Amino acid sequence: MAGARSSAASGLAALTLAAMAMTLGATVPATAQNGPLRIEITEGVIEPLPFAIPTFEAESGNAGELAAQISQVVADDLVGTGLFRQIPSSAFISQVSDFDANVQYPDWKAINAQALITGAVSVDGSGQVNVKFRLFDVFSEAPLGDGLQLGGSSDSWRRIAHKVADQVYSRITGEGGYFDSRVVFVAEDGPKDARRKRLAVMDYDGANVQYLTDSSSIVLAPRFSPTGDRVLYTSYETGFPKIYLMNVGTVQRRALEDQPGTMTFAPRFAPDGQTVVYSLAQGGNTDIYSLNVNGGAPQRLTSAPSIETAPSFSPDGSQIVFESDRSGTQQLYIMPASGGEARRISFGEGRYGTPVWSPRGDLIAFTKQNAGRFHIGVMRTDGSEERLLTASFLDEGPTWAPNGRVLMFTRESAGAGGQPTLYSVDISGRNLKRVPTGGSASDPAWSPLLQ
C-alpha cells in the first residue's frame, strides 16, 4: 500500500525487559511501598510532588548522550501527569556520579526533594542498551522498592525510559502506569472541506509517528486490539464505509465483513480479541452486530428502528455500552454482550455519544453536546456521578489510557480554518493539555501497555 510503512512495529519486538531485582546492598521489605511517600489521586487540587533526577550515569564511553536522553524522557513522563514537579539540576547540592554510592539524604532534603531517581546506562559492543535505576524516599531515607535493570536494542531506548517512568509512577501513586503505550489516530491535512486522512501510530507522548495507510481514501475510528498488535478501522475506499482489520507490524489488512448493500462502521474489539462489535446499516436502519474475526456469521445484537452505534465492551466482556436515539434523542444504553434488553444510563440535559468503558470497569467516558458546547465527561456505569471534564467548540471521541486515569480525545477549533488536534485530561478534570502530533489529528485510540 502506497505510503504505508511495514516497520510500524520496529523496535517493539527488539526490546527485552530484564526487570530483575538487583542486589544493591540494602534490602527493602514488602511494606516499603506503603510508606510515607505516596500520592493519593483524588478529585481535589493536588500539589505536585517534587522529585530530583540527576542525569543517569554513563557506564560506558558511548552512553553519555543516551543517558541524558533517557533521563529527560523519564522526567518528562512524570511531569506530564501534573502529579510531579521536577527540581532543576541547578538547585542540586549533591551530584550522583556513581550509581552504587550512598545517597546523601540531607543534601536532597535541603532542596525539598521528596523522591530521588538515580540511574546508569551502558551500551555494549553489539549496541545493546542496559539501564538500571533506583527510586528513593528522601524523607524516610530508604529505597522505595527494589532497583531494576532493563535491556533492549539501541532503537528501543525510549521504551526503556517509559518503563522506568511507569515503575516510578506506580510505586508512588499505587496506580498502574501508562507511559509505555502507543496511540493510533487519524492524521489529517488539507482544508476543512477536503481533508486528506490516513492512519498513523505514535508513542503516547507524540514521538515516533509512523503512517499505516496513505491518504487516497478517508479512514475513520481506528481501534487497537487488546494485545496492541492489530487495529480495526473504517475506510471509504469503495465509496461506502467498510471495516478493515490491520496487522500493525506488517500493515497487512483485510476487509472484516462484506455484505452487499450494507455499510459497516464503528468497530471495537471484545476483551478476548477474537470478537468484534460494530454497526451495520442496511435499508435505512442501523443496528449493532458482533462477529468472530476468524470467520462465521454475524450476530445481530439490536433490532430497533432507531440508530444504534458506537458500541464498547465492559472489561469482563459481559456487557456493551452504546449510543441510540430510540428515546428521541442521542443517549447511552447498556445491554448484555449477547444482545437483549437495554437500559438507559444517561439522563442529563443534552445529547450523549461515543461511550467507552474504562479498563478499570468503574466508569464510562462519553461525548456530550449541550447548549452549543461539546464536552468530554465520565459517569458511573449506572449513570450516576456524571462529571464533565472539558468544554469547547467541539470535543469528541474519548479513549482511555491503559490505567483508566487519563483520557485522550479530539478537539477541533471553530471557523473555516479550524483544525482537529489531540488533547488529554485526567479523570478529575485536571491537567488538560495538547498532545503533540506534528499536524492535525483526530480519532485517537490508546493501546494497552506494550509487552
UniProtKB/TrEMBL annotation:
Cleavable signal peptide: 1-21
Chief subcellular location: periplasm
GO CC terms in record: periplasmic space
Keywords linked to the UniProt accession: Cell cycle, Cell division, Periplasm, Signal
BP GO annotations: cell division; protein import
Domain TolB N-terminal as annotated: residue spans: 37-142
Entry annotated with the keyword Cell division: yes
Places the protein is found: Periplasm
Gene3D superfamilies, A to Z: TolB, C-terminal domain (2.120.10.30), TolB, N-terminal domain (3.40.50.10070)
Function: Part of the Tol-Pal system, which plays a role in outer membrane invagination during cell division and is important for maintaining outer membrane integrity.
PANTHER family on file: PROTEIN TOLB, PROTEIN TOLB HOMOLOG
Family per similarity comment: Belongs to the TolB family.
Subunit note: The Tol-Pal system is composed of five core proteins: the inner membrane proteins TolA, TolQ and TolR, the periplasmic protein TolB and the outer membrane protein Pal. They form a network linking the inner and outer membranes and the peptidoglycan layer.
HAMAP family from the UniProt entry: TolB (MF_00671)
Protein name per the record: Tol-Pal system protein TolB
Organism (species): Pacificitalea manganoxidans
